[in-house]
Amino acid sequence: MAFDFTSTKERMQGAQEALRRELAEIRTGRANPRILDRVEVEYYGAMVPLNQVASISVPEARLLLITPFDKNALEAIVTAINVSDLGLNPASDGNIVRLAIPQMTEERRKELAKDVKAEAEKAKVAVRNVRRDAMDAIKKDKEMTEDQVHDAEDQAQKLTDDNTKAIDEIAAEKEKELLKI
């Protein structure tokens, strides 16, 4: 009987997806609507994600345009962006909110590149934890022969290596995007 790696593969892919989500929220000096994913607006007494009360578009490389579905939400949107940890200053004209993305300094780019490496390392640790769980399950499986156990452990290691390599590629791509001028 061979070991079923379905759950292991899914959990390792989950670590990659989590890394992609985290890296999407790191500013690169270019406008990206994903940097607003964590911003929540108080809308009629409830906290709701910004993208549920407004449309977000990118008319220029360093400008986000936020158009509220309800004009009454405009002030709440400006307040939510101001209190967020984005460090951006929204400009409202009464109908829409303009969010200019400032050019980043070289020092800030290098700092963010370190953050990318740290996030990638967290993802690798998650993948290694999944491998450890798989290895434990393989060793506890009494129906497998020694050769099957050895083959399953090799397969778990190969999955780990492949996912670690993919994480490195994702991080390298983000670093390249951050560091290019």
From TrEMBL:
The answer to whether UniProt assigns keyword Metal-binding to this entry is no
Cross-referenced SUPFAM superfamilies, in alphabetical order?
A: Ribosome recycling factor, RRF (SSF55194)
Q: Which residues form the Ribosome recycling factor domain?
A: 19-179
- Which superkingdom heads the taxonomic lineage of this protein's source? Bacteria
| Entry keyword set | Cytoplasm, Protein biosynthesis
Q: Main localisation, per the record?
A: cytoplasm
Annotated region described as Disordered, given as residue ranges = 139-161
State if Cytoplasm is listed as a keyword.
yes
Q: Where in the cell is it found?
A: Cytoplasm
- Segments passing through the bilayer: none
Q: What family does this chain come from, according to its entry?
A: Belongs to the RRF family.
Under NCBIfam families, the record lists:
frr (TIGR00496)
Described by its record, this protein's role is as follows: Responsible for the release of ribosomes from messenger RNA at the termination of protein biosynthesis. May increase the efficiency of translation by recycling ribosomes from one round of translation to another.
**Protein name (record):** Ribosome-recycling factor
Source organism of the structure: Fructobacillus tropaeoli
